[in-house]
Amino acid sequence: MRLRNTKIPKDAVHHPVFARFYARMSVAAESAAGMAAVRAELLSGLSGRVIEIGAGNGLNFAHYPPAVSEVVAIEPERTLRQLAVRSALRAGIPVDVVPGTAEALPVKSEAFDGAVASLVLCTVRNVQQSLAEIRRVLRPGGELRFFEHVRADGRAMAATQRALDRTFWPLVSGGCHTSRDALAAIEAAGFVVETYRKVNMPEGGIRLPTSSCVLGVARRSAVVDRGPRGLRSRF
Question: Does the pTM of the predicted model rise above 0.90?
Fold first, then answer.
């Protein structure tokens, strides 16, 4: 693995209470909320070297296809990173779990064929800097696979999301913001969004402020184009 000499502050992200809660909740959500199927769809067809940003406790690792030669998994939170290391030992492909933040990825430029952002753009301090870093480390034409919270379609739920994001929700949920516009941010960072679909999590039952998500594929273009670009939906 080719790492960049980037200084990483000790415990740059530190949410030990949330990390323990998330670890338990995410395992339960694999079957109860249908997350395992979403992870499989998110990673299907990837190949070559892949960087995963915000790997959490490593639940994606079991779903990487055999065509992936290596995963470099970035996770800044110590508790989750330790759990990710255990998950990496059980993965069917080589996984290297590395401390780091999305805003300063400790890897060389254009070193990866694919990148994965799964429920991470909602938590980062600087969305555009994080996406610029992802674009930097992807080779030209490389894929960004994303699964992210998005603003709800309904006016009342969207207002609830904004209220939560301005008050206590980021403090108790590891920095999560439920109403960020992930699609627009990905496009503005110079990616071409090739396909996406909206997902409600869980798929059945009551809708929560965290239910509205988007799952899709974007590609790094050779030249950054910040002009308007149409999005093509699969539904």
Answer: no
